[in-house]
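User:
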Amino acid sequence: MIAEENADGKWSEKKMGKEDGSRTVECLRGRLIAERAASRKAKEDAQLMGNKLIELETKLREETRSRNKAEKKLNFFMKKLESMNISYVSDESEHSSFT
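Assistant: Predicted structure:
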């Protein structure tokens, strides 16, 4: 490109307008690329969080099943002890007597 200068040594308005326009376009292009990258990263993060949530919900269901099963066994053995006339002192009753 040929630089156009007027008598005062300043760039012509036509040349400056063209450079400002191309600079604006490049700036906007850069911002668009950055926004797309940020959007892609946010989408990936959301997907990972969703997968982690599903995994945690599955573990919670398993733990709940295990706890329920353990409580049923405890109740069964407590009844068995009662039927055999054997007294059992639970940890809860020991702790309540100390407080």
